[in-house]
Amino acid sequence: MERKNLSLGEFEIKFDEARKGFFSGYASKFNGVDSYGDTIVPGAYAKTVSERERPIAMRWNHTGPVIGKWLKAEEDEHGLYVEGELTPGHSVASDVYALMKHGAVNGLSIGYRIPAGGSEKKGDVRLLKQIDLVEISVVESPADLNALIGDVKSSISGAESLKDIEALLRDAGGFSRADATALVARIKSLSRGERDDETKASELFGALHALHTQITART
After folding, report:
1. Where in the sequence is the domain holding 14, given as residue range(s)?
2. Catalytic residue flag (residue 77)
3. Residue 22 burial (CB < 10 Å; 0-12/13-18/19+)?
4. Based on the structure, what is the number of domains in the chain?
5. Residue 116 contacts by C-beta under 8 Å, 6 or more apart in sequence?
6. 62, 75, 137, 141: which is the annotated catalytic residue?
7. Which residues contact 121 (CB under 8 A, 6 or more apart)?
8. Is 109 a catalytic residue?
9. pLDDT tens profile 60-69
10. Which stretches in the chain have pLDDT values below 50?
């Protein structure tokens, strides 16, 4: 599953003060070239929003709990417009709502798959013509996931020692020296096997992000 982030500013978030927990905006915009080298073209979401059998999940940070539901998801001339409602009385949803109102979280991130024939390569740009939407998460990640994975991949390729990897964790992942040292064993295990570099880097960053969230929650 692939992911794309959209900041709260791009999301054009709006709250309805008469309906606590209700918000609306854009989960995706058309025609811009992102750091993946991807462009989502108009019509890419038409099939997934009209023919899906299961509702689009609203999650916290992709791997966190379901925190509400999407009431509307439709294309317009700008992109994928959504309206959502965070679940009343849900402890995590209440915290997320407070963070969104305060502007303390980054925005939204879509989780999706590209079906066969759903993309086309034109020069250095991949045109996404059809997207199978899996979920839309409210996320706290401070930067574009693909850009961070690229940084991690680049740094790993130049690492010559465990100390280099520990430094990478501190610089790119935001870990303390003690936490970085403790994670080296996990990095070594993820680096083994026959998977390609991008898959390993994606898994590595996913593990680091999840663990960093846990560490942050304890502090």
Report:
1. 2-141
2. no
3. middle
4. 2
5. none
6. 62
7. 127
8. yes
9. 988 889 999 9
10. 142-152, 198, 214-219
